[in-house]
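Before going further, learn to read the protein records used in this course. The integers have meaning only within a learned vocabulary of local backbone shapes. To see the layout at work, look at the sequence and tokens printed below.
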Amino acid sequence: MSNEQHPYISIGSNLRALREEAELTLRGVAAEVNLDVSLLSKLERGVRLPTTNQCKDLADFYGVSSDMLTRERALSKAYATLGSQPEFERLSNQLREPGVTYLDYKSVGLMGLLDYRRLDVSSQIAPERRSKLGQYFTPSEIAEFMAKMFEVISSNQIRILDAGAGIGTLTAALITRMLEAEHLPKTIEVTAFEIDPVVRSYLEVTLNLCRTRCRELGVFFSAEIISEDFILHTRHHAENTLFEKPPRLYTHAILNPPYKKINSDSEQRAALSALGIETGNLYSAFVALAVRDLEPGGELVAITPRSFCNGSYFKPFRRFLFEQTSLRKIHVFERRDQAFSDDEVLQENIIFHLIKGMINERITISSSSGAGWDLLTSREVDAAQVVNVKSSEQIIHIALNDFDQTTMELMKAFPCSLDDLGIAVSTGRVVDFRSREFLRTEPEADSEPLIYPGHIRKGFVEHPKKEFSKCQFIVECGATKTLLFPPGDYVVTKRFSAKEEPRRVVAAVCRTETPIGFENHLNVYHTEGHGLSADVAQGLALFLNSSLVDMYFRLFSGHTQVNAGDLQRLNYPPLDSLQKWGCVYRKVVDDPEMIDELVEAEANRMAPRKRPGKRKIRHKIDEALAILGFLGLPKEQQNERSALTLLALAGLTTEEDWAQLRTPQIGITPITDFCKEHYGVNYAPNTRETFRRQTMHQFVQAGFVRENPDDPARATNSPKWCYQLVPTAADLLRQYNTPQWIEELDHYLKTVPSLQERYASLRTMELIPVRFNNGTEIQLSSGVHNELVKAIVEKFCPRFTPGAEVLYVGDTKKKFAFFDKSRMKKLGCRVDEHGKMPDVIVYYTEKQWLVLIESVTSHGPVDAKRHEELATLFSSVTPGLVYVTAFPDRNLMARYLGVISWETEVWVADAPDHLIHFNGERFLGPYA
């Protein structure tokens, strides 16, 4: 690499080329994708490596494949570690060779190369197979973060277990960290389990890379790849130790285990039982077995779903875990789709660190908004605040900040269990598809009400409901007698809610004078199968509908299901409190603020010390979020970080209203200090750049914040750099929650257009017009992908399908830019909006061909896999199918020549008069 080149020049040049092809300025692109102009400049110059999320945002904006940019990022990172293009190309070619046994790898920085290989192997395995095996490959950023969680990395003898190793990214990250330590280990031994033969070949190469680097540093390295099922192998090994010397235990275990349930009658379940481990999911089984094989003081770091933290399903697993280990660190992803975004995994994941056989008094809890670690909070708490290992349930409570901790303390102030109150909670007894023959849409002489979650409305059950899609009545007879409850007062809660819903716990009072059925998607509070007293029922519903209960529930539950067991384990107020609230329930049921005040006041009365509840914090943040929406900030800035920043700029604490707004001159560090002191959120020091790039930059652009009002000429790198609300904006915000707010806001926005309006205006100016041969004109969003789509319609079609009808044109920003559904239907095509359509579809009437054209800049070329997908998608059409891949130029085409499917065509926009045919019997024509 020459001295003039920056380390990531490969992807930087690509990003710059994309922008220049689109004829856009740095400032215009930065505004659209919410990046600081200087940062985007560094990305294009190769000074900085973009994060995976930034690659996705830029790919979406330019209209190219996010997979292409993500691969370019991984290649660029690998190239930077190898130092020269020839060396990189040599190694890349070697890595594509099957059965590689040795590589002369001369740099410890192999994580970028592994990211490239992770994407490569993912593309070779069918999604159905990956789902069957529960395979989700670890991105290098997460692997490196996990490796940093280990405490002991310098030891004479290191023995690493990687169960479900994949391509070996986790092991490579851990070894990389160990080889960067001040004191190197003498030996590193790796035992890696991987059952997939395709993945195993990649794993072999990774371990060879690690072996080479260890050899260069004088560290003895050995590795064993075991192709057996980890669970069955462990049982077999344990049985054989009766006659053999027990194996050496591991010093480190690093895991991204498969996520899949274990059938109760499976061989794996029997093997686990034989080993004294009771669990029903592969991920918890892998963790338990890894813990079992750790030496005393050995460490384990794993990334798994959060679901094991609570509930009876994982209770035996938690008991085993805390009998064997102590918890040291927990990391939470604030967004559930970030840890494995490439694989579209939607489980809520956490990373945790355990040490075997040691008592730990403190636990570190951290969080980030994504896999890029660009927004990290961290706090250290007493271990007893996270899990009470002496309790029967051993539920793990994850409080991300001081006010989450306060929520836990306030809930624990309530002294009663449901048993103390003589109340029970159970799941609704009616499973509608099993009782279908007894269900009725209209009332009959022998039918009774059947209650669903849809009947809950404003704290009460409303039955019957007009235009209700389900049967609202159930026949009372001998077969249904055990499914019904007798007349009385009950409290019901929804068992399921969407992730985005504002509340997990939603309760209602149900009073009935006849027998009644509750459907299985409800939980029912009752007294030995009978109703509660009216006051207690209403007081209980008030308590369950409070913000305190809802916020507490989220601290230990990582999923959206509210099980009866979860409700059973809550602390409850005494009967006199419930009766007192029951008397006022009807008056306050429509006033959430009053409900929260009543419950929080009672909790503080019973708590050892009075604590401000999180409700006021949440309320203030919600107000700030609403204001950001009113001001027209893009959705990327309508988040908690930006809301807290606005509150800091206004100098407002939880006890002050907007009329008391101040306008301090404040820098980024004082803003984060304000967040911690007044709102309990402790942002790590490395988040300052995120505040600047992802919040303050847009606030300044929107015109309601100014930089350095006391010294506009202040140097960019000055520690005195500060921000302040613009006086007109401050005057506006003081009117929030007053009758004048809407009028003042309207006046303000007429003088200062919102940032969303400015971005929308920019997008409109950059739209690409596309004209069909019949004179129809459509407009596509800007970007090189849609420029190629324009060339397909205006250059390819007139040359090779003259007079053809354009039936479909896709757009990167809106899937259907043009779609002639009726014409497609007449041709026998039943494709709906969920189908993965090609970029352009034309019907060549003269030849009766349906030409499916794929722009390589979207989802890649028509390779064998895509050919099969399209053939299946359009299997019902009557015309013959023709498959075409379009490229903008021959240089890009050269990258994909090895994967383009036979019996397809290739067209290149910079040579529009030529067409390349890949094998087959005919040129530009369908195949039977």
The first strand starts at residue 157 and ends at 163. The two ends are 51 Å apart (CA to CA).
